[in-house]
Write a structure and sequence with these properties.
heterodimer, A: about 475 residues, alpha+beta, Dna Ligase, domain 1, 3 domains, four-stranded antiparallel beta sheet, 13 helices, about 25% strand, elongated, B: about 280 residues, alpha/beta, Rossmann fold, two-stranded antiparallel ribbon, 8 helices, P-loop_NTPase (chain B), ImuA (chain B), Protein ImuA (chain B)
């Protein structure tokens, strides 16, 4: 056959394709689960009436998939296992409520999705169909093949129901608009989002909740789905603010939302909701100010990205590198801006305003090996040290450092050069000397030699200590 | 009647007129400097103040001074947050801001919101948004280098918005230049040798942060008292949240190396001399 094209099996591409179809199937129900490499399970409980009942829904789903060249077999049944067994057997259709046992009776036992040994064992015992199994008393079956078989059997026969595990978390609230004629213009999309935000605001208000994370999904007529997520610093149900955030988000997109042939479904969902009581305006207008700052943080975070609007999270540690960490302002761990903080407590020892990460190596020369530096060179400029404070010895946190050699202990110095610039320097490691006496001139000599690479082994001295610049004081 | 005094009189008159029309002039904050050399200069709330570093290497000092000014401006209102917009390049050059360091200067790190902007345009856009938010206690804008976008129009827009919202803004610059800009005050900052206490003096340790500041421009002036061009050596005290005047530089403590004239010892040219470290031995 000369025309036969041979293409290698590409499981990754297959999985990606299935994910795309699953995304598209979100339009029917928010509860979609993957089933193996080539199946999807949709929980349509309470959704079917929106599409004109189960038969209509099934027909529309199949027509929609067929419209973009996906062939499928669809079965509607009372339990996921019954539907799966029927679909895998190639039978489409709708199982009436309570009719699962009759529908699956003729299927081979392999459709129970149990181990191959059990299937072999069952066929050796002459039990070829699910109907055969169902007619048997359960106890001997359990004794012979284990409880797994019975559970599967009960689920497939519709005696026991099981919830599917959806691939996306179930949103707290959903508002959506469907369009018989797909929309494509940016103004229409924005206006639709505005309407959806109004709907959501009403829903959230009725529940006394506010959303912390929102997701807009744009379902294209050809099956592609684009999602845009927006997070807020505090629970919000202000539809105007939400509309503004989405306008920012759409403006900030590097690759704009491509409508293609148009969107036929736009959905706005609240991914995470939190209780929100109406704000009480205090006499000095403080609450209003806080709201405004929170709105500003949201706006900047949407435009620049969540990781660019930051606040400090302080940790109880002596390690200066870990003492503070910058986290997104929307992070729930940071204290609220308005909360009455204890007055700022300055650290006992002055700390630099800026820290280098990682510390920058400098060439330093000290008068005595465990003393402050006399001069050092950083970024090709030599600084003569006029004043120095230290050492402040900071040992690494050995209980969290997993490396076998560990980070060496650091001796920190606060130094000021002759122009008045202040630096935070440290010497890495303890300066060890092997027994013998020590004098300043000798060290200098050996430091010179160490750079040539001879002295350290011969005399037992450690090599010249390494110095780093860790921070700058104002 | 010579021309010089004429012009001086005219400038004073103009300064007086400007002061009347300057929106934020009703409320201001002082540096709380003590000593006769520097009676308090009043800075307007709800205005744009510019802080320049003399050289790029002086930027840490300018940063500290701008933050200290912001703390002075927000002295009465402890709970209001301070927003700091920083360009990414500043992080790369100077290191990231650190919470204990902020606390050392007297700012509660929980009050700071840090915005990192990828470029100067984003810095200005974020600043334009932030300056309209009256809930902020202060706004520090730190673009890197000399962005084209930061022209007279941009600074004028910022200061107008600051005036209507009442947010005091500080524009932090690495480059010293006399560019046109609609700023209320313009400061030029270099680090100064600190004035250690007696205890620190004995140990040879540096003291509080110290700045050598020059007031290049003061829109509105101080009435009859000329303050433009004034130079002070100031020390920041984080506990009282105020500046102190240090009159003279305690240069004497710096030992003059033998064999060199005293004048060259300070090596004031360009942030230290560029030279290889001499290896002894």
């Amino acid at each position: 056959m000369p025309d036969l094209a041979v293409i290698d099996h590409d499981p990754t591409a297959d999985a990606a394709f299935l994910e795309k179809i699953a995304d598209d199937c979100d339009r029917w129900t928010p509860l979609v689960a993957l089933d193996g490499a080539d199946g999807l399970v949709l929980d349509i409980t309470g959704c079917a009436h929106l599409f004109g009942g189960e038969p209509d829904m099934r027909a529309r789903l199949l027509a929609h998939l067929k419209a973009h060249d996906v062939g499928a077999i669809a079965v509607v049944a009372g339990t996921p296992d019954a539907a799966r067994a029927l679909a895998r057997a190639g039978a489409g259709g709708i199982v009436p409520p309570g009719g699962e046992a009759a529908a699956v009776a003729g299927l081979p036992v392999a459709r129970l999705d149990v181990d191959a040994e059990i299937v072999t064992g069952l066929s050796r015992a002459g039990l070829r169909t699910i109907g055969d199994l169902a007619a048997r008393p359960p106890t001997p079956l359990a004794a012979r093949f284990g409880m797994e078989l019975l559970t599967r059997l009960a689920r497939t026969l519709g005696r026991e129901d099981v919830r599917i595990v959806p691939r996306r978390p179930l949103p707290a609230a959903i508002a959506e608009r469907r369009f018989p004629e797909p929309i494509a213009r940016a103004e229409d999309i924005e206006a639709t989002l505005g309407l959806l935000a109004d709907d959501l605001a009403l829903m959230l208000e009725a529940r006394g909740a506010g959303g912390r994370a929102f997701e807009a999904s744009f379902f294209r007529a050809d099956g592609a789905v684009r999602r845009l997520t927006v997070e807020t610093a505090r629970p919000s149900r202000d539809s105007r603010a939400l509309r503004r955030l989405y306008r920012e988000r759409l403006d900030a997109l590097a690759d704009p939302v491509d409508p293609g042939f148009g969107f036929d479904l736009v959905r706005l969902a609240v991914l995470r909701a939190e209780p929100l009581t109406p704000a009480q305006v205090s006499l000095d207008g403080r609450a209003v100010e806080e709201e405004e700052v929170a709105a500003l943080i949201d706006r900047l975070a949407v435009r620049l990205g969540r990781a660019r609007v930051l606040r400090f999270l302080e940790r109880d540690t002596h390690d200066p590198e870990r003492a503070s960490v910058l986290v997104p302002a929307a992070d729930p761990r940071v204290p609220r801006l308005a909360s009455p903080h204890p007055p700022a407590r300055a650290p006992a020892l002055a700390r630099p305003l800026t820290l280098f990460e990682p510390p920058q190596p400098v060439e330093a020369l000290a008068e005595v090996p465990d003393g402050p530096p006399l001069r050092f060179r950083w970024r090709r400029v030599v600084h003569e040290v006029a004043r120095a404070e230290g050492p402040e010895r900071i040992a690494p946190e050995w209980w969290r450092d997993a490396r076998p050699d560990g980070t060496p202990t650091r001796d920190y110095y606060r130094v000021e050069n002759r122009e008045g610039r202040r630096f935070w320097l440290f010497r890495a490691g303890l300066y060890e000397r092997a027994g013998e006496g020590w004098h300043a001139g000798g060290w200098r000599e050996r430091a010179g030699q160490a750079s040539v690479g001879q002295a350290s082994v011969a005399t037992g001295w450690t090599e010249a200590p390494r110095w780093f610049l860790h921070g700058l004081f104002p | 009647m010579d021309t010089v005094s004429d012009i001086a009189a005219l400038r004073r008159m103009l300064a007086g007129l400007e002061a009347e029309r300057l929106p934020g002039a009703v409320s201001g904050f002082t540096l709380d400097m003590e000593g006769e050399a520097a009676p308090g200069v009043t800075l307007a709330h709800g205005a744009l103040h510019e802080v320049q570093a003399v050289r790029a290497a002086d930027l840490p000092a300018a940063t500290g001074f701008a933050l200290a000014l912001a703390l002075r401006a927000a002295a009465g209102e402890r709970a209001r947050p301070i927003l700091w917009i920083r360009q990414d390049l500043a992080d790369a050059e100077l290191g990231r801001l650190d919470a204990p360091g902020l606390a050392s200067l007297g700012l509660d790190p929980a009050r700071l919101i840090l915005v990192r902007a990828p470029d100067a345009g984003a810095v200005l856009r974020a600043a334009g948004d932030a300056v309209r938010c009256p809930g902020l206690g202060g706004l520090v804008i730190e673009p890197w280098g000399e962005p084209k976008a930061l022209d007279l129009t941009a600074t004028r827009r910022l200061s107008l918005r600051a005036a209507s919202s009442g947010v005091t803004c500080f524009l932090l610059h690495a480059v010293a230049r006399a560019s046109p800009g609609a700023v209320a005050t313009r400061w030029q900052v270099a680090p100064a040798a600190s004035a250690p206490s007696a205890l620190e003096q004995a140990a040879g340790a540096p003291g509080h942060p110290a700045f050598a500041v020059t007031l290049l421009r003061h829109r509105g002036g101080e009435g009859a008292r000329p303050v433009e061009g004034g130079t002070w050596n100031l020390e920041w005290d984080h506990e009282t949240c105020s500046f102190r005047d240090i009159a003279t530089l305690p240069r004497a403590v710096v030992p003059v190396p033998a064999g060199r004239p005293a004048g060259t010892a300070a090596a004031g040219e360009g942030g230290g001399e560029v030279a290889a470290l001499r290896r002894a031995g």
